[in-house]
Amino acid sequence: MIRSRWYAIRTAPGYQRMAAVDERLPESRRMESIIERNCRKDGFDIFMPSFYTELRHHRTKQILQKRFPLLVGYAFVNLPRLNFEELRRVDGVVCFLRGANYGPLEFPDVTIEALYFAEHERRQAFLYEQHCRKENDRHEQIHHLRGQLRKILPKGRKARVSMVDQAERAIDSLSPQIKERVQKIISELNSLKADAEVENLRQAV
């Protein structure tokens, strides 16, 4: 069995940015960096410790998921065959990190494992933060949709009757345009209920 031999490479500026989306690649590689894609294309096993974050597009306001390196300017490549010259020819590889003996510095598996663990912990924290953000967005959307129903539906309904039930009973008396709008709101509320069963949308508003 060939043992792992990890070496740190210095990456060229800009090569740790996310590569262009390639639908032909498996899901696990959809958010890889340029240097990772170049190395993997040439058959090298690369590890770039990273973290994920969400950013809101300044113009569209859409939430975008981005990936950034934990160690800016560096990545690790497994070279069990010590084929340094082949790796040097990969686009984006500047040089190897060298040790006191002036040769490429080899990193033990325990160091790489620690970095894998750090990356995993940060990934779990990101997923939790993402879940909380989605739940907050969902609750805000529910509140907004209910507010729209309050403006549309007749006043004076009984407190125990839910907003959705009130809409379903009153919908036939509405004009076609308003009826279509109410049906759309009910559909959106039902989809939110189906997506995350955290709140009973049938309760009184």
CA-atom Rg in angstroms: 27 Å
- Indicate the mean pLDDT: 82
**What is the beta-strand fraction?**
15-25%
Distance between the termini: 65 Å
The ordered string of helix (H) and strand (E) elements is: EHEEEEHEEHHH
Amount of helix: 40-55%
Description:
There is one protein chain. 41% of the residues lie in helices and 17% in strands. The model is unreliable at 195-205 (pLDDT under 50). The N and C termini lie far apart (65 Å). The strands form two sheets. Strands 1, 2, 5, 6 and 7 form a five-stranded antiparallel sheet that branches. Strands 3-4 form a two-stranded antiparallel sheet. The protein is an alpha+beta fold. It is built from five helices and seven strands.
Summarize the structure.
By secondary structure, this protein is an alpha+beta fold. The protein has five helices and seven strands; from the N terminus they run βαββββαββααα.
